[in-house]
Task: structure prediction
Amino acid sequence: MTDTLNRLRNIALIAHGGAGKTSLAEIMLFKAGAIKRLGRVEDGNTAMDFEPEELKRQASISSGFHKYDWEKHTINLIDTPGDQNFFSDTKICMQAADGAVLVIDAVDGVKVQTEQAWDFAEELNLPSVIFINKLDRERADFLRTFKDISECFEKPKPIILQLPVGSENDFKGIVDLISMKSYTYDAEGKVVEGDIPSEMQDLVETEREALIENIAEADDELLERYLEGETLSHEDITAALKKGILSPIFVPVLCGSVIRDIGIDIFMDFIVNCMPSPDERGPKKGVDPDSKNEIERAPDPDAPFSAFVFKTVADPYAGRLSIFKIVSGKLGGDGNFYNVNKDAKERFSQLLSLEGKGQKPVTEAGPGAIVAVAKLKETVTGDTLCDEGSKIQFECTKPPEPLISFAVTPKSKGDEDKIFISLTKLLEEDAALKLDRNAETAEILLSGMGYVHIETSIEKLKRKFNVEAQLNTPKVPFRETIKKKVRVQGKHKKQSGGHGQYGDCWIQMEPLPRSKGFEFVDSIVGGSIPRQYIPAVEKGVIEASQKGVLAGYPCVDFRVTLDDGSFHSVDSSEMAFKVAGSLAFKKAVTEAKPVLLEPIMKVTIITPDEYMGDIMGDLNSRRGKVLGMDNKGKNQVIMAKVPLAEFLTYAPDLNSMTGGRGIFSMEFSNYDEVPAQISQKLIEELNKEKG
Result:
């Protein structure tokens, strides 16, 4: 099994949407004989994209898994989504990889999602390689794309390993700077090895020298030999190249065309020869769940079993499918393991290997293996599985915070609970979704990374659970507060035969700074109100404050000081003083200049420079306040504060403004007063909505 471990590669394909990840995976699987026919994304028949929602959009919305054998090695491919709506799945599934392939379009170059994928790889310290695709396309330019890469990604340093032979429609092969050979391809993808074209000699010599200098930096002894003028062998260069990738000191840049099958075989050789195996990546750190001390597990088949679940697929018929990577030890075809997060034993009856939409039973799996089991009762994404006698807990990558929310309502009356239960099951397979019942607005809120993300989830809801729902813009959780200090009396007196009701209180009400909430101060002296009735006054104020006088929203950020009152020895009661407190609040807030507050979001927008003007103008129209700007590669980063009411539909709007090249994130910042010129109209609209 140790030999098997050395010959295993777990590779994540990452990119901006449309760069050709899924097509690259398809041709690699086809060339290796793992699939019998070559599918196309446009035809909806690739091995990795098979969900109906993916076929409809001609794009990956969930990571796909497949494996192939090449040069006596086994390669597990993870084809991740490139659309920002589904990038959380990319980040979460990348933690199962031991290396990443960043695919870049030679026409469009580095895009925002390309940079985001790169950031994920850097965060996970993943050894990487860049594959420049689509060199056969019109306006494709290798050197321009490489310059783009070098400007955007400074560390690890990008280094050229291959140069294209020909360009655009005349692109026909590559020159490998290590072997110093050219490889040209015919229409069938068959390769012919030859000498370097004469017109490329000068460029090749220059880039070869730069390559050797860069590679030698990964090995001090090799660098010394090179500086002394010694000629380095192919083996020396390859060994130092692999060392530099693993460090990672640099990231090699290869090139080709997936559609024309140019350079793919050499790229597949590179994966085998230069990308790391699980044992070369070394031990994985975790914690002892009992002592909380840091411990680690090496990828050793004889070590205690440990694994982490990085993806879950919810199926209404087959049940939950848990996909995990084994870190140490081994599993048989069936058996038991312990879930540390849930403190529960789990039993499985079949171990599965994933191959696109299909699964194959396997009898054994060891370190580095990516496998799945069905119908675990307690286990979800992020859980650690291990031997109960040798516990360890791994920390899993957290998904990004949701960017957009929609209110979900059933198309059929009475299906609210059914919708909530079914959506809860969808959350098991998509950690980036969040579900909430808002008691204040009585809405079921579904939050995600963008409109397409939410829309796709609703489509899955119908397909998997036969529940139809519609999406509405959620209600904004406004608040109310006051701007003036007042003193009022709240008096409740009622005589109805027998015992009456009597409660009398005087309160001072004054505004507090933003986000300070509610304070109640007892300033009663001389027993004007007995001690047992004072909490009832506070309770009356609190209950009344849940519905403000302007539009019925909770009133916040104020202090109530109870300073006087009177009571009746027979007719006073807790209920009477509670009513008195409520009356005092309503009277006070009416006199204290009530105002409407709205939630303000702190927003970060990353966009190519050419869209800055449009975005700044749009932010101004949304009452946004720009806090600052910064550079990130060739992109601009804008920090701003914007009212949530103006930002509910920003995801599709930004996509439209930037042609899909802009991304944003947001988090709650504070509540602030709605401007006077907007407030009155808004209050009328809100009261009209509430009937």
